[in-house]
Amino acid sequence: xxxxxxxxxxxxxxxxxxxxxxxxxxxxxxxxxxxxxxxxxxxxxxxxxxxxxxxxxxxxxxxxxxxxxxxxxxxxxxxxxxxxxxxxxxxxxxxxxxxxxxxxxxxxxxxxxxxxxxxxxxxxxxxxxxxxxxxxxxxxxxxxxxxxxxxxxxxxxxxxxxxxxxxxxxxxxxxxxxxxxxxxxxxxxxxxxxxxxxxxxxxxxxxxxxxxxxxxxxxxxxxxxxxxxxxxxxxxxxxxxxxxxxxxxxxxxxxxxxxxxxxxxxxxxxxxxxxxxxxxxxxxxxxxxxxxxxxxxxxxxxxxxxxxxxxxxxxxxxxxxxxxxxxxxxxxxxxxxxxxxxxxxxxxxxxxxxxxxxxxxxxxxxxxxxxxxxxxxxxxxxxxxxxxxxxxxxxxxxxxxxxxxxxxxxxxxxxxxxxxxxxxxxxxxxxxxxxxxxxxxxxxxxxxxxxxxxxxxxxxxxxxxxxxxxxxxxxxxxxxxxxxxxxxxxxxxxxxxxxxxxxxxxxxxxxxxxxxxxxxxxxxxxxxxxxxxxxxxxxxxxxxxxxxxxxxxxxxxxxxxxxxxxxxxxxxxxxxxxxxxxxxxxxxxxxxxxxxxxxxxxxxxxxxxxxxxxxxxxxxxxxxxxxxxxxxxxx
Amino acid sequence: xxxxxxxxxxxxxxxxxxxxxxxxxxxxxxxxxxxxxxxxxxxxxxxxxxxxxxxxxxxxxxxxxxxxxxxxxxxxxxxxxxxxxxxxxxxxxxxxxxxxxxxxxxxxxxxxxxxxxxxxxxxxxxxxxxxxxxxxxxxxxxxxxxxxxxxxxxxxxxxxxxxxxxxxxxxxxxxxxxxxxxxxxxxxxxxxxxxxxxxxxxxxxxxxxxxxxxxxxxxxxxxxxxxxxxxxxxxxxxxxxxxxxxxxxxxxxxxxxxxxxxxxxxxxxxxxxxxxxxxxxxxxxxxxxxxxxxxxxxxxxxxxxxxxxxxxxxxxxxxxxxxxxxxxxxxxxxxxxxxxxxxxxxxxxxxxxxxxxxxxxxxxxxxxxxxxxxxxxxxxxxxxxxxxxxxxxxxxxxxxxxxxxxxxxxxxxxxxxxxxxxxxxxx
Lengths: 635, 427
Prior knowledge:
The complex is a heterodimer.
Chain A: H1 7-12, E1 23-30, H2 36-46, H3 64-69, E2 77-84, E3 95-102, H4 111-119, E4 123-129, H5 136-147, E5 151-157, H6 166-177, E6 185-186, H7 195-205, E7 218-227, E8 231-240, E9 248-251, E10 257-259, E11 262-266, E12 270-272, E13 281-285, E14 299-302, E15 321-327, H8 333-345, E16 351-357, E17 361-368, H9 371-384, E18 389-391, E19 398-402, E20 407-410, E21 421-436, H10 440-449, E22 453-461, E23 464-472, H11 473-487, E24 493-504, E25 506-513, E26 516-517, E27 523-526, H12 530-544, E28 552-558, E29 561-568, H13 584-599, E30 602-604, E31 607-609, H14 611-619, H15 625-634
Helix pairs in contact in A: 9-15, 10-11, 11-15, 12-14
Chain B: E1 29-35, H1 52-55, H2 64-81, E2 89-96, H3 104-118, E3 120-130, H4 137-146, E4 150-156, H5 160-165, H6 175-184, E5 188-195, H7 202-215, E6 219-224, H8 232-238, H9 247-263, E7 267-270, E8 273-275, H10 286-293, E9 296-300, E10 305-308, E11 328-332, H11 336-344, E12 350-355, H12 358-369, E13 376-377, H13 383-394, H14 400-404, E14 407-408, H15 412-416, H16 418-425
Helix pairs in contact in B: 2-3, 3-4, 7-9
Domain Radical SAM core (chain B): 23-267
Subcellular location (chain B): Cytoplasm
InterPro entries (chain B): Aldolase_TIM, Coproporphyrinogen-III_oxidase, Elp3/MiaA/NifB-like_rSAM, HemW-like, rSAM, rSAM_sf
């Protein structure tokens, strides 16, 4: 029998009445497919929170997309009971503990959410696939955990795999975080081997939370989820004081107050409790309908007896990547608008405003945290709302200083100011690339061609290397990850975080059809890449746009200067040779169909372009980011 | 095989027409007779025609004249019952298939049946299509004696390798002879050509045109080859055995044809047709003009279409009526055996019909009349369509002088882009 607390023990760890020294708050840091969810499932079973038969695989991943991709988007927190016999005295009574496992998003797009989840914990399980070793994104989250002073418990997973090399990767982990390779636990989420030891180790090593029980309440929001029936469900970690049902609470960033309709813990379904005390983790329901009223990182306090100071670390999520989203069927525009409004309820980082494109019609310019965020939103729109969408190539945000010193923020390349420009600043990221050392040359070559600057290089083990680069974020958003993958046969992993911006020699390349700018294809690129972009895009459109009754020039231009040109020759024949008695009905129907098709075309100047042509031009390799995001999460 | 019949509504078993077709009319009346037989099936052909091997028993060529005559009788009865005034027939056209695989006497018998049913108008035009290798001086004399006035030979090309690609069996050297025989018999002669056959060079095409011009015929039709799905040639192209003709190549050949034929005194009068004196010079095919002008016509035979009660080019105000009815078109069942069975049972062989709406009638009128050298009365266009005229003139697709005079008349370039012009004129 696994050590689940007895009834007497369970009474000592009731929510709202658990002494902080019996609490352990931890998270699991892992790369996307290194088995975090499977391990979490195993813990839920061992602690009796779910029985094996009721357990759905990967219980904590709620949404279909997450389940399908095996990745976690939204974090949740589960309270698990666990009993440990005091060390050195097997005869002594077991000590019950309440373990709060806080699930963290694994992807770089959600760095801020990760950092808030980490801030709710005192310890972190660093979970690494024993057959693959640590990956760049895990490294990034490990740094975040160390910055939050978390106790790290290194664990190698999947030791049941034939390809596992636990010795090798234990060395690698010890080299990274210090300590003895022997301290690295070896588990298998799949078979359950070593998981009990891990739970014991968590109790042993993770420090109990510390807080002032008598101070005014302060609880940090680390997640906020919209539920159709309950409204917003807010996940909090209580730092000081306590929160109780039916009291009025206040959000310290907005000063908004709400009545606490329900407070409780997740185990693994929501269970209302008499409140939450120091160090405890649970959920709040206030009846608000929009996650923006309950922001991740904000501090919840008692409205009647408010804390003087909010907890640190709060910031508003800032979109880093923008893309235009358009319904392929223009009549779907209201559906898209409603769908975005709905998703926004559950995604404080999602922002958008209406946008009109000559080529694509009515749509929205949408800001995302990153490429994965973009891809997830797009896929949810298509799947949950049955929309067919086209997205423009993703772009970053530019600050353009004009000659008069005023600064314009550009989130859409077609709005890049013309005329005299002082300077253009673009966001820069610090990128960490982990790869087998045989690919160093290929990675350096690629990074250099993407305007990267090498910051440093370290060997993680004999044959694995970490390279650190400063790179323009625009290059990452374009096709960096695809190329990195192809040049390293899929072995490299990438993580990046925004570290500031830089002045760069950037220009806007416009694409013109018969002299008319096609807004959806304007791109901001480095001066040295303008020609290549122009040649690529004009060539592609020449293939895709059907011949017209007149010759159509396609040009790429920087300002008034044409840098590339293609021509679509005029069509010479568009007539059915025979049109006699038996042909008339068929011929008329054909013309009616063609007329319908013509109505669906977009007219740029006088040129009729089927929307499919724009879509094809946008969605292939030159579209950029889409492929990145896909690979990033599949890995 | 031949293209599928259109979707339509069912036709009453007795073939009755909607009651609104009744009443006096100025429309002319023509009869088309489809002869669904060929000795061989050509690789490019998707017409409703059958070789004896394909057909099997039950619908023999020998009994075809009798079956067709049954439909002629039914036609007379249907039109009378429907209150459409009986008019002498202005034109009769035997097409196929290869009408001349039937004995000349059979063709004469069917024509006789038409004469018995409605009478033939003074100066009636009676045409038959023919293969150059399915006629003799005697058979042509027999046809002329029976009342035929015109023969249209499927020459297609004067170049052996082009004919071979088309599966045509006749000897091109026979062309001047058959033209001479037909003229000697007193028949007006037309030659049909196909351009853009896979492997046909510009010189090959020029040679065909030169051959045609040398015969001195008064009428020529030239059609761009269309590789239709379901044909043998379509499969050959798909397998890469034949190159797909390009539209640019066909456009160049069309322009070459127009130059050569015009120089020989044959004037363009419809997208694919040239005749001495154009549409009004006495050599144009009046039966085909009736299709393009919107007259009444009855199609006899399997798969044949018929059309009654539409607005015509000669309507008083030139416009399609804004409301009400704009013609009925129907089509017969395709297979000769089923066609024969239905007629023997005394029922109409029609498979379906459509009652044209105002918009459909406008589109048809524009699409058909704009193909002609007399052009389309601009009054027949809706306001949106009229607004497109200036742009089409500016693009060189419509003749400016004619537009000022109130007609939409295609230029040479416009003829090659006629479908685009129609789409613009019927926005």
